# Entry
Amino acid sequence: MFRMLQRSKGFTILELLIVIAVIAILVGIALPRFKGMKDEGNYAKAKGELRSLQTACESYRIHNAGYPADLTTATLSAAVPQILATAPTDPFNPGNDYQYILNSPYYVIFSVGPNGAANITAINATTGALTGGGDDIYVSNGTSSSGG
# Structure
């Protein structure tokens, strides 16, 4: 009589290595996509907050006969009527406020964007044209109302 060999119920080392390799490939594909999704979320957040800050800036001008010198929480919360309780912070530059350049009668409010460096350096008081730009996300009452 032939005795049948019993097969073990576990996995072989080769099967385990193949499963680990497949998981590693999937993780390698997914991680860059998560970074891109984070940047897209920060971009959308920045655009929305910049529109709110632009509205706050225009409201300040209407009630105080001029644009604010800065867009800090102290300035915006002390305005009468109160415009914003707190100034939002730049999602691409955590812990820091959005950048604000005033060259009356024009201003630009901007986020540093994904590269983390401020590329906008000035706004022309005559034309409202911006100097710089790069990947910065901005709103302005100058020649280009929004961009980035």
Remarks:
- The chain has two helices and six strands.
- Strands lie at 99-103, 106-111, 122-123, 130-131, 137-140, 146-147.
- The chain has a mean pLDDT of 87.
- Residues 13-64 form the longest helix (52 residues).
